[in-house]
Amino acid sequence: MMIHERNDKMWEPMKSDCSKCSGLCCTALYFSKMDGFPKDKVSGQPCINLLKDYRCKIHSQLEKQKMKGCIGYDCFGAGQQVTQVIYQGRTWNDIPNQAAEIFDVFVIVFQLYQIRYYLIEAMSLVSAQPLAKSIQCLIEENIKMCHDRPTNILSIDLEQYRNRSNTILKQVCKLLQKSMHSENKKIPANFLGGNFKGQDMSGADLSTKLLIAANFEKSLFKGTIFLGADTRDTNFSNADLSEAVFLTQGQVNSAKGNRNTKLPYHLDYPSTWK
């Protein structure tokens, strides 16, 4: 059974490109050392490791220094959209009087991009074709909002748009599980640190599950839903995630795996996966 229809073009805008950003994730967001960042910092304050050219001073050492928060973060491409498109290449250093506005716009656009990521994948699911028109309308609305003027972006009713998108995504998940006859598939109540080596998790709904440090070596995840799952230190070595659903680059970056792990075609292997 085919889960996805491949469409490379749809994923192109969702790839983070730090070279076209101005260190927005390292400046606009709040950091907590407890969550695997260099130190506690308030939103709007540059990270201590952010260089003047917006590169990270310790990027090659993130794993060694156990910066799990940095390793697991992904903006879905929102950073370059804000820097290059909305502000036409101008940075918060170029226009310091608008820095606070730029940071606020980034936070909103990041959330919109995250929602769009899930909608794009929903659009590619064979089982979700009955909802294709509704999904496409939400994607087009999202793109329009992310190309608007800063003042208009700041006035977006994000909660209302998120609720409409979540309603569709819940329907998408139900259609997927129905197509796989897995609506009543039983899964463990607790995954934390558990050993599930070689398990067939196909069709399971792992949405928002805490999979921290669980072992899924050599497991199969065909049509498995990862929406919002916590995959920090989850072991996916030699596992098949190629047809996993709603799995993000950030979740992959936070997990453990190797070059024998099969990933969805639109996701990249972390440099730490050997």
Automatic annotation (TrEMBL):
Gene3D superfamilies documented for this protein: E3 ubiquitin-protein ligase SopA
Task: Record the organism.
Answer: Blautia hominis
Which Pfam families does the UniProt entry name for this protein? Pentapeptide
Instruction: Specify the domain of life of the species encoding this protein.
Output: Bacteria
**What is the protein's given name?**
Pentapeptide repeat-containing protein
